[in-house]
Every structure is written in C-alpha cells, then in structure tokens.
C-alpha cells in the first residue's frame, strides 16, 4: 500500500512528463484513494503536499488542478554583470521593484565585509525581481554611507545597484567569492516571493568590488526561488 509521499511522487512524474498539463483537473481525493487502495486521509495528505510544493491548486467546491509552472531560467552565477542585465539579455519580461532602504544595526559580519568601522552607517536596499509579473528573486544589498553619501536619500528609488554605481563613476566590477546554501523561506520571504514553506530558496552571499581600486562596494544576500532557475556556476 503506497503512502502519501509515493502517491505525490507519482503525480509529480505525470506533471513533469506533460501527461498532466497546467490547469488540468485532477481526480478527486476519493478517486485517488480508490485507485491506490488507501484511506482517503492518505490521498488528502498527498494533495496537501503537492499544494505546499506548488504543483497543484484548489478551487473551492470544484476540486484540485495542476498549477502552471514558472519558467526555468538559466542563471549564470557571476557578479560582474547585473541580474537585470542578464534577464533582459535573455529577452525576459523583467522588472525590479524597490522594497525599502533601511539603516541596519551593527552586524560584525557585514561591517567586516565592507571594511567599515563601528561608527559607519550601513544601509540595506531591497529589490524584488519579477518575470512575467511573478516574483522570482529577492536581492538585498548592504552599502556604507561613508562610501555612498546620498544612499539614505536615494536608496528608496534604486532598482539596480549597478546603475547606481555607474552614476557614481564605477564602471567595471570584480565579483567577490560567493557562498551558496539552500534555505527554506521565512514568513516574510514567502509573502514577498509568493511561495509556500516547502519551496526551497537558493541563498547566495557575495559582494561586489570596484575592479580598478579593489574597494568593496557592497555585501549582497540574494534569495532565488529554486523552482524558477537552473544554475550555471562559472
């Protein structure tokens, strides 16, 4: 007798193979229970898992349907070209929305990374990235006011850090070493990225330096929806 995980896996295979397409109606929980010879509660748990993973959605009183999958975007994880430029070069319907500029409390890791002393003021600039009107990534950049004196005044209007750096005379960039990890989204990240708690995020910690002077311009934390990207590590 299969359990709910095995039933969910079978349905995921049907979706991945194209046998079940976006917005196709799925069998009822009773029909799944009868097909797999399991109690209805097992079928319900399988459907709940699929909904949490973003594979299906429910219509009240009508049943469950296959969720349209977000596009798989090939992303080269390099820091010398802006994310915005990468997406536009690939022809995606892309835009960024600024979600805030805020001074942070002292954080030794971030301050040390930026080469800032404890009296410096560090600001976090957040941008939410969209393709086809769907949020796919959250970018957080931390910069020092001692380097960018107007950041507290203009930070709320920045949608591309690279464009901002260009406006300050920085033209070529050298990426800093990156740390990759897989995390599950927090409540606030789930709300911003419109995903469930079971959709992992690829977290990238890195930074950007001016290629000419080697001065560190920012510290970055980027969260990518893992169901939207395939990754190329140079």
UniProtKB/TrEMBL annotation:
A single GO BP annotation from the record? negative regulation of DNA-templated transcription
Keyword set for this entry?
DNA-binding, Transcription, Transcription regulation
Q: Name one Pfam family in it.
A: UTRA
Is Transmembrane helix found in the keyword set? no
Q: Do you know which InterPro entries this protein is assigned to?
A: Bact_HTH_transcr_reg, Chorismate_lyase_/UTRA_dom_sf, Tscrpt_reg_HTH_GntR, UTRA, WH-like_DNA-bd_sf, WH_DNA-bd_sf
Q: Name one GO molecular function term.
A: DNA-binding transcription factor activity
Domain HTH gntR-type positions? 1-69
Tell me the PANTHER family matching this sequence.
MANNOSYL-D-GLYCERATE TRANSPORT/METABOLISM SYSTEM REPRESSOR MNGR-RELATED, MANNOSYL-D-GLYCERATE TRANSPORT_METABOLISM SYSTEM REPRESSOR MNGR-RELATED
Which named protein is this? Answer: Transcriptional regulator
Organism annotation: Formimonas warabiya
The opening ranks of the lineage are: Bacteria, Bacillati, Bacillota, Clostridia, Eubacteriales
């Amino acid at each position: 007798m299969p359990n709910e995980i095995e039933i969910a896996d079978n349905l995921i295979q049907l979706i991945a193979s194209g046998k079940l397409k976006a917005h196709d109606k799925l069998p009822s929980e009773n029909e799944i229970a009868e097909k797999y010879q399991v109690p209805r509660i097992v079928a319900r748990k399988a459907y709940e898992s699929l909904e949490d993973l973003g594979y299906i959605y429910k219509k009240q009183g009508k049943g469950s349907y296959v969720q349209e999958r977000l596009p798989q975007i090939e992303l080269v994880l390099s820091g010398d070209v802006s994310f915005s430029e990468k997406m536009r070069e690939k022809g995606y319907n892309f835009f960024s929305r600024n979600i805030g500029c805020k001074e942070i409390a002292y954080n030794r890791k971030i301050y040390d990374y930026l080469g800032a002393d404890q009296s410096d003021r560090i600001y976090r600039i957040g941008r939410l990235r969209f393709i086809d009107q769907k949020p796919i990534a959250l970018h957080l950049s931390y910069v020092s006011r001692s380097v960018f004196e107007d950041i507290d005044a203009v930070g709320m209007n920045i949608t591309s850090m690279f464009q901002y750096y260009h406006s300050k005379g920085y033209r070529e960039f050298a990426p800093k070493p990156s740390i990759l990890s897989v995390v599950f989204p927090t409540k606030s990240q789930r709300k911003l990225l419109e995903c469930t708690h079971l959709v992992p995020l690829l977290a990238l910690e890195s930074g950007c330096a001016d290629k000419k002077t080697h001065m560190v311009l920012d510290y970055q934390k980027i969260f990518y929806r893992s169901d939207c990207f395939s990754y190329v590590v140079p």
